[in-house]
Predict the structure.
Amino acid sequence: MLAISTTKALSLVDPAVLKGSPPSILSTQTFPSPPTTSVWSQDNSTLFVAFPDSIRQYSSLGSHIGEIYSSTEIITSLTAKDKGQTLILSQSNKIQVLECGSGVGKITQTFASHKTPIAALSLSNDSTLLASVSPSAAHVHNLSLGSHTVLRGLPSAGQITTCAFHSHSRTRLLLAMGKQVLVYDTTRPSGPVKVIPMSDACSGDIVAVACSPFSKTLVAVASNGGNVVLFDMDKDKGCVCNCIYY
């Protein structure tokens, strides 16, 4: 199921409908205010949509289940563990762990290791490691041990915009910084094991990173200049394979 959100409404589209190239897509739900981020539960049964002051829960059919969390602080990032019984969100420079199995969210843990507002969160493929990035810092939190590690060796120029744990490797973390992707092995936090420049392939700074669920080496990045680049991490300089403009 594909979830598409605009500033005003949510649309949920079945893959079979997409294959038919529909001329238009109808809205499933209207929003009370523009959303800030969203995430599916790991079993894809529930969609959680964050707004500046709350988190709402929707079924895979698009029906509104209810509001599970409200706050006076803006929610900037959101990720989900298990079947959506645990959400992890960022507000300013804090990370909050929200238990919501009962249908009403309750903050059970707070991490405040960052000095500046958090830009993005990412969970490892086994949900034991959580990456959090601010413009000038990247931290990895071990949720099982309650500890965190600061990644070092970041380039002096540019700001970190987002991060993504690799879907096939628990400790491989990708950071986006300007027009380059930094690849870290989180067990060796002294510096990136590889720096992949996008150079002219990106028309702007990278704002999103996604790893292929079918390949251990293919990665897609999207830029704020309006293009998506597909590259292979194992080839020299990323060896851009495809470039899609929108």
In short: The CA atoms of residues 135 and 160 lie 5 Å apart. The two ends are 22 Å apart (CA to CA). The longest strand covers residues 64-70. The helical segments are 15-19.
